[in-house]
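Design a sequence for this backbone.
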């Protein structure tokens, strides 16, 4: 989708790209404090991590530019991938964006896009094993609306409110990106505080999603939070897994599609449970994202 190439699982280049993305995310988390105190990057411990981050990022960009160069500046009428779409838009709108922006966008798609979806699904599988009643309700809805003769399609989403509410509750309770770093572009004032341009600010999504004044018993997994009295899906002003405003995640629609299709197709065909005697552990591991601790699943084909 991004570069017009399908990677096989055993592809060494794909393995290297995955490793680079993972290490970049881990190192980035360790260097969060450098955003607040840039001088720390010159201290020995931080300097080593900072240099590693720069080297790994440069290597990731190098791989991406290799695929971009294979496309050249062509913009075919039949758009094959994201690079084609970018080139077509740039061709139609001279001065649209610098070429390097394409590299940054694909890097976001590969690292942030794949990691966020896979982590959300991992947390989802963990919660669905801990709350089998929720899993059964999703499966019952899928059986009623879609059946077993065909796989769920994204167009089914509007008729599967409980399935969609379950995905939203997974996003809320997991909040895999608890802090969103930003920087002010202009001098501004917030709640009486003067904030100069260039100030690093962090949006605390975890606090928003776990605020008991907005979410009663916030540590309880309950998809019904997102359903109205008529059983239809409802919005919540304190639910922002993709952030909000001008800097809202540009991959939101793709992320929603990935989560829905993967979860719906999995639960249509399989039932998930923990091994006998195993207890779910909801204490995550913090990096740039919040990872669930390693766990095992028993996946059983539904009859």
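Sequence:
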């Amino acid at each position: 989708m991004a570069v017009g190439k399908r990677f096989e699982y055993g592809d060494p280049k794909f393995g290297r790209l995955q490793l680079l993305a993972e290490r970049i995310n881990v190192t980035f988390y360790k260097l969060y404090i450098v955003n607040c105190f840039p001088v720390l990057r010159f201290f020995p411990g931080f300097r080593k991590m900072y240099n590693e981050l720069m080297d790994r990022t440069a290597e990731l960009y190098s791989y991406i530019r290799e695929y971009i160069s294979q496309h050249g500046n062509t913009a075919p009428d039949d758009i094959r991938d994201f690079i084609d779409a970018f080139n077509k838009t740039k061709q139609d709108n001279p001065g649209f964006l610098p070429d390097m922006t394409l590299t940054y966008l694909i890097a976001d798609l590969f690292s942030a896009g794949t990691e966020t979806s896979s982590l959300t699904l991992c947390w989802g599988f963990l919660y669905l094993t801990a709350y089998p009643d929720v899993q059964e309700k999703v499966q019952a809805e899928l059986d009623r609306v879609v059946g077993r003769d065909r796989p769920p399609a994204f167009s089914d989403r509007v008729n599967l409110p409980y399935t969609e509410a379950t995905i939203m509750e997974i996003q809320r309770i997991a909040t895999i990106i608890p802090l969103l770093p930003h920087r002010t572009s202009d001098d501004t004032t917030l709640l009486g505080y003067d904030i100069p341009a260039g100030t690093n600010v962090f949006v605390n999504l975890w606090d928003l999603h776990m605020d008991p004044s907005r979410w009663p018993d916030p540590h309880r997994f309950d998809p019904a939070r997102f359903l109205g009295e008529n059983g239809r899906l409802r919005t919540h002003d304190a639910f922002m897994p993709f952030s909000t405003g001008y800097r809202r995640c540009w991959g939101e629609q793709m992320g929603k599609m990935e989560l829905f299709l993967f979860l719906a197709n999995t639960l249509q065909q399989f039932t998930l449970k923990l091994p006998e005697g195993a207890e779910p552990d909801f204490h995550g591991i913090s990096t740039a994202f919040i990872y669930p601790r390693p766990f095992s699943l028993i996946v059983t084909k539904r009859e």
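Strands lie at 179-183, 188-190, 193-195, 200-204, 270-273, 285-286, 290-291, 298-301.
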